[in-house]
Amino acid sequence: MKRCQAFILFCLALSVNASSVVFSEDQQSVRLADDSTNISKILYNYTSGNYDTISTNQQQPRSVFDWVDSIATAMGVPPGFVKDVGRNESKWPKPNNLNFLIPNGDLQIMPATYKIWYKKLGLTGGKTRYNYLVVGIAYLKYCKDQGDGTWRQARYIYARGRWKSPSQWTKLERRFMAEIDWKLYD
């Protein structure tokens, strides 16, 4: 886990031209050369393991896809897969407006699911675009663990709650499952 954290911080340092990477027990920081910005990583305890992600109050992302890349990578979910699911669910409206929030978020989390996972993940700040992404991505990972370990089953379980044989899928289910190139993820 420490090696993974160090690698993520190293990549962040390279991507933002950071001059130093500082490690501590509870939080790691990347300091920019001009010291104007700190990107801090806050550890979160997810049910299927310990994952860390970049804190929204420290990072200045350009679009919602920066958050997706960061969160998904930290949780072990392919960022492209999350983007495909979001394209299925909401079509990613206004990706450059980080404060824009549609009902149930970009990944269309059911209200009860959001409430349970928000609490389980120890999130704060209420219903924000970032929190909806954290919950949605963590739930995708959970769905993969509930199925046979493929992203294909995870996607179906995410949308429908449980797996059904493809021969039992509705026309809508066949359409949203066909919109993803499964060779990229499984």
Task: Write the SSE topology.
Blueprint: H1 2-15, E1 18-22, E2 27-32, E3 38-46, E4 49-54, H2 64-75, H3 79-89, H4 111-120, H5 129-146, H6 151-160, H7 171-178
Antiparallel strand pairs: 1-2, 2-3, 3-4
Kindly list the characteristics that best describe this protein.
alpha+beta; Lysozyme; 7 helices; 4 strands
What does this structure look like?
The chain is 45% helix and 14% strand. By secondary structure, it is of the alpha+beta class. It has one domain: Orthogonal Bundle (Lysozyme). The N terminus is likely disordered. A hairpin with a 2-residue loop joins strand 3 and strand 4. A four-stranded antiparallel sheet has the order 1-2-3-4.
Summarize the structure.
This protein has 186 residues and is of the alpha+beta class.
Helical residues, percent: 40-55%
**Number of spatially distinct domains:** 1
Class inferred from helices and paired strands = alpha+beta
Could you tell me how far the N terminus lies from the C terminus, measured between alpha carbons in angstroms?
Answer: 24 Å
What is the number of beta strands? 4
Query: Roughly how many Å is the radius of gyration?
Result: 17 Å
Instruction: Write the CATH fold name.
Output: Lysozyme
Mean pLDDT rating: 77
Neighbour order of strands in the largest sheet: 1-2-3-4
Number of helices: 7
| Biggest sheet statistics | 4 strands, antiparallel
* Element-level helix/strand string: HEEEEHHHHHH
Strand content: 5-15%
CATH class: Mainly Alpha
What shape does the CA trace take?
globular
Per CATH, the architecture is Orthogonal Bundle
Given as residue ranges, the uncertain stretches (5+ residues, pLDDT < 50) are: 1-52
